[in-house]
Amino acid sequence: MAIGKRLNKAREGVDREKLYPLADAIKMVKERAKAKFDETIEVAINLGVDPRHADQMVRGVVTLPNGTGRTLRVGVFARGAKADEAKAAGADVVGAEDLVEKVQNGTIEFDRCIATPDMMPLVGRLGKVLGPRGLMPNPKIGTVTMDVTGAVKGAKGGSVEFRVEKAGILQAGVGKASFSEDKLVENIKALADAVSKAKPAGSKGTYIQRVAVSSTMGPGVKVEPGTILG
């Protein structure tokens, strides 16, 4: 079946204008996740912020209670004992100057990047490579830290970074279609709670304005914003 036909069929029964309670929306998305692989369930949240202003940027990290269903490859920039600690915690790639050179040459073998503070002058040279990919370590989201073990285990255990984009939209993967409805609801509520706590002082009016959930290959289903909180 062509992708267009499949998507049209999946849209049957979804009112594009209606706002559904979160649990109902998740059920509809799961029922329509018919791809031959375990689709990722994603949530998109429109926030009442203008991220072009520094005081309205929303970003952070949250550990989802039921994980993401995805195994992240974690890279760590560290030396000596901290490098050994990173390896023991399960990091996939660990290094210092050698890892910087590897990344500069275009080899990026990780999905999450962590660095000890002393490594940042070196890692800073990789801004043009890691920045556009959303991989640059940042102390605000716990990826520049001396607690290498905690950061690596968090990344491996289901922590998700979130960041609002230019249009004021925040998107994140919150699990897999194979997850139960309850687990997906719990994960989305955990994300929403973290996003709410990250509300910037510069945000005026309604903060969480619109919410939609979807699967990788399925249609979006609009959600009543109030049902993702609490």
From TrEMBL:
Cellular component annotations (GO), alphabetically ordered: cytosolic large ribosomal subunit
Superkingdom of origin organism: Bacteria
GO molecular function: rRNA binding; structural constituent of ribosome; tRNA binding
UniProt similarity note: Belongs to the universal ribosomal protein uL1 family.
Biological function: Binds directly to 23S rRNA. The L1 stalk is quite mobile in the ribosome, and is involved in E site tRNA release.
Subunit structure: Part of the 50S ribosomal subunit.
Name of the protein this chain belongs to: Large ribosomal subunit protein uL1
